[in-house]
């Protein structure tokens, strides 16, 4: 089980060393912006590293929405980030499940996801696994509650689609953590990556506010139980910079009974 952290993109490998991390996740462009990433000068070095790399797509991407002015550029941007992520040897591109606006039909949102994968296939494929991440908030989200996730996976059918489970988002989104991995795997058949985060917000608060693993409103022991059950690589997206994340990684290694 490789354990790492979400880090600043300037020099992800140095960030990995500073945290004693075996994996890093980073952005390839402004997470609040619509820019397609430029090729990275350190692409060869990143591809050759023995640190596992994951890329997080910008937050502005929402391929589910019925709003054309968001959905169409979202598709293109997702594909652009996928090829840029593949170019640095990333093992997966993480993207949030997205949502439809109040009053819009969620079924159309799921179908927009299907069209996104069809569009990518027509364009030569994503080039790496795309991992859809569960989200914490919203009443019309595609991947907050497991019943919605099941409908999303029904629609995506034969497409190759991965899943990233965020423990903070699940808890704040209102899904009980006990037994969650089994319930998720019954739907998706897989968990490709864990975002291991405690939550500042209460259960079912809908708040996307990450906390360090031994802080927050989730019992750390329960957090470890979920992570162990998932058996997937782990990325912490926790506060406190190098020190905070280094401590979270060390905590997990100790709890999971292994050293690195
Ligand atoms: Zn996350």
Summarize the SSE layout with pairings.
Blueprint: E1 3-6, H1 12-19, E2 23-26, H2 43-48, E3 52-56, H3 68-87, E4 92-96, H4 106-122, E5 130-133, H5 146-156, E6 162-166, H6 167-173, H7 180-188, E7 193-196, E8 198-199, E9 210-211, H8 220-230, E10 234-236, H9 241-255
Parallel strand pairs: 1-2, 1-10, 2-3, 3-4, 4-5, 5-6, 6-7, 7-10
Antiparallel strand pairs: 8-9
Helix pairs in contact: 4-5, 5-7
The protein binds zinc ion.
The site of zinc ion (ZN) has 4 residues, from loops.
Structural class: alpha/beta
- Rg over CA atoms, rounded to whole Å, is 17 Å
- The portion of residues assigned to helices is 40-55%
Whole-number total of structural domains? 1
Low-confidence stretches: none
Largest beta sheet: strand ordering: 1-2-3-4-5-6-7-10
CATH class equals Alpha Beta
The fraction of residues assigned to DSSP E strands is 5-15%
Q: Any idea of the CATH topology?
A: TIM Barrel
Q: What is the H/E order?
A: EHEHEHEHEHEHHEEEHEH
Overall body shape:
globular
Q: Kindly report how far apart the N and C termini lie.
A: 10 Å
- Would you count the extended β strands for me? 10
Largest sheet properties: 8 strands, parallel, barrel
Name the CATH homologous superfamily. Divalent-metal-dependent TIM barrel enzymes
Mean pLDDT: 96
Present as ligands are: zinc ion
**H/I helix tally:** 9
The CATH architecture classification is Alpha-Beta Barrel
């Amino acid at each position: 089980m490789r354990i790492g952290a979400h880090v600043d993109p300037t020099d992800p490998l140095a960030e990995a060393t500073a945290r004693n991390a075996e994996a890093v996740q980073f952005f390839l462009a402004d997470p609040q912006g619509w820019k397609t990433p430029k090729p990275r000068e350190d692409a060869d070095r990143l591809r050759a590293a023995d640190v596992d790399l994951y890329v997080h797509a910008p937050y502005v991407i929402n391929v589910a929405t019925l709003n054309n002015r968001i959905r169409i550029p979202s598709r293109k941007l997702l594909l652009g980030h996928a090829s840029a992520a593949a170019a640095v040897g990333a093992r997966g591109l993480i993207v949030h499940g997205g949502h439809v606006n109040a009053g819009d039909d969620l079924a159309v949102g799921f179908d927009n996801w299907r069209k996104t994968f069809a569009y990518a296939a027509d364009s030569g494929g994503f080039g790496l696994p795309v991992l859809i991440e569960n989200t914490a908030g919203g009443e019309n989200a595609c991947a907050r509650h497991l019943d919605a996730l099941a409908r999303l996976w029904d629609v995506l059918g034969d497409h190759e689609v991965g899943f990233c489970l965020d423990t903070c988002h699940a808890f704040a989104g209102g899904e009980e953590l006990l037994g969650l991995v089994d319930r998720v795997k019954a739907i998706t058949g897989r968990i490709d990556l864990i975002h291991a985060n405690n939550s500042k917000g209460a259960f079912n608060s809908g708040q996307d506010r990450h906390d360090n693993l031994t802080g927050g409103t989730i019992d750390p022991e329960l957090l470890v139980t979920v992570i162990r059950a998932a058996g997937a690589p782990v990325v912490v997206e926790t506060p406190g910079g190098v020190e905070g994340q280094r401590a979270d990684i060390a905590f997990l290694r100790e709890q999971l009974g292994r050293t690195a």
